[in-house]
Structures are given as C-alpha cells and as structure tokens.
Design brief:
There is one protein chain. The strands form 2 sheets. Strands 1-2-3-6-7 form a 5-stranded antiparallel β-sheet, with helices on both faces. The chain has a 3-stranded antiparallel β-sheet with strand order 4-5-8. The longest helix has 16 residues. A hairpin with a 2-residue loop joins β4 and β5. It is built from 3 helices and 8 strands. It has a single domain, classed as Peptide deformylase (Peptide Deformylase), CATH 3.90.45. Helix content is about 20%, strand content about 40%. With about 160 residues, the protein is of the alpha+beta class.
C-alpha cells in the first residue's frame, strides 16, 4: 500500500472520484505508515504542491499532506467540524488538473479534526490560504475537484 514510485493521477481519471476510506488508528502508528508519511510529504514538495491527498497518487485512503508555516504535516481522516459563513475567493490550481486555474469561493476559517501522524486526534483552526488548502484537499478525499466548484476556468 505504501510505496514511493508515485505519479500524480490527472483528471479525468476515475480514481480521483468517489469517497476515500478511513485510516485505522493502529495503522498510523506503524513504521510503514511513518515512512509513507515522510515520503508523501516530500513527494508533495517535489511536485511543487502545498497540499496533496492520497487519492491523487491512487491510494483511496483519507490522508492529506499540507504545507503549514514551512512545515509539512500529514493528517489521516481529516474532517471539517465548522466552516465560517464568510467566504474568500482565490485562484486555484491542482496537481491533478495540470495547467488549469479557476476562481473558487471557500470558507475563510475552518475548524478541523484529524488524526496526526502520531495517532492522536487533534482539533485546530485554520484561516486564509491554509483554510483554502485544507478545504481543497478534503474535497479530494470526497471525490470533488476544484474544477467542480470553480468559475472563470482557464488553461495556462
């Protein structure tokens, strides 16, 4: 399941659609998962990403990596507990939808619950660009791509 010979799956590949499966807590604390988390985060950076969801590499698991304040964090089973009514519009792209950009409205603030890479349940607030990244990556875990929500889509 956890290997390091990955490529980014691109739209319209069906593996990007559908809901990913939860990760078991006991799985997270294994050396295999820890090695996966390190490789997954490094792969995100090498791919010039600020976020990456496991379905983007063909793994139907609820795992994301997010670059937060120059630190790569990997989370399992992330969920949005609360989203602000206030929205922010930003231009988004996606590693799985290359050379395509669009304007997406997303919540300015989110309350997230997830399991960190140490197997502990954590809750935290994110805002601004980081909230956009979390919302975008959690969408991937539910088979939703930014182009499903974007307006003014353009190819570059």
């Amino acid at each position: 399941m956890y290997h390091d010979s990955w490529t980014i799956i691109t739209h319209p590949d069906d593996r990007l659609r559908g809901k990913a499966e939860d990760v078991l807590v006991q799985e997270i604390t294994t050396p295999e998962f820890q090695a996966f988390a390190d490789t997954f985060g490094a792969f995100m950076i090498e791919s010039d990403g600020v976020g990456l969801a496991a379905p983007q590499i063909g793994l139907k698991k609820r795992i994301i990596a997010v670059l937060e304040k120059d630190k790569i964090n990997v989370y399992a089973n992330p969920e949005i507990l609360k989203a602000s009514q206030a929205l922010q519009e930003s231009e988004e792209g996606c590693l799985s939808v290359p050379k395509t950009w669009g304007l997406v409205d997303r919540p300015k603030r989110l309350r997230i619950r997830a399991i960190n890479r140490h197997g502990r349940s954590v809750e935290f607030d994110v805002s601004g660009f980081t909230a956009t990244v979390f919302d975008h990556e959690i969408d991937h875990l539910n088979g939703v791509l930014f182009i499903d929500k974007a307006k003014k889509i353009k190819k570059k």
